Amino acid sequence: MKFFIDTANIEEIKTAHDWGIVDGVTTNPSLIAKEGRDFKQVVLEICDIVDGPVSAEVISLEAEEMIVEAKKLAAWHKNVVIKIPCTPDGLKAVKQLAGLGIKTNVTLVFSANQVLLAAKAGATYISLFVGRLDDAGEDGLQVIGDSVAIIENHNFASQILVASIRSPLTVQKAAVLGAHVATIPFKILQQMFQHPLTDIGIKTFLDDWAKLNA
Ligand code: E4P
Prior knowledge:
- With 214 residues, this protein is of the alpha/beta class.
- It has one domain: Aldolase class I (TIM Barrel).
- The protein has eleven helices and eight strands.
- It has an eight-stranded parallel beta barrel with strand order 1-2-3-4-5-6-7-8, surrounded by seven helices.
- The longest helix is centred in the last third of the chain and has 17 residues, at 196-212.
- The structure holds erythose-4-phosphate.
- Residues 6, 26, 28, 107, 127, 129, 131-132, 163-164, 183 line the site of erythose-4-phosphate.
- Erythose-4-phosphate (E4P) binds next to β6 and α7.
């Protein structure tokens, strides 16, 4: 399973990258706005840190405009992946961009049928928003399981990307279900390291070592 980090914060990206577990980065307009910095500058700084897919989202809603925007973003750096919402215009753009060899990440996906459509259009990644589904009283992980089965059963090239992650347990369960990628907020990555028995074990070893050397 690949791990992307779901942030536009450079310090968080550098720290997680130094842990050796980051394969890529996802941003969205909200995450970029939170940093209050120039979009292109942030994306290029991220590309300097992580040599892997870096998602940058288009703002246009009409296919031809999305394609113009996507070509501009893709020209910024070879690792930029174009994030496009799952609409008829979005998938029309994805199909044409796939023909041009431009990688896409179809976003704001909430159902297995949307996954099927995005896969048929030729999406590189399909971002399923598990947390927002759970918030709405649906079972986000159920949709992940169904979507992984669809991709595998029909040999689609698209990868299921688990997004909108709110807890370490979601990452674990999505990995068991065979999801290809998880994009994980920095705070959740930190929580994934934590186990009280690890802390107790380290303390015991160090105390015993100190006794021996006392
Ligand atoms: C990432 O690609 C998504 O935009 C992100 O995971 C959405 O997360 P949120 O639902 O917490 O905003």
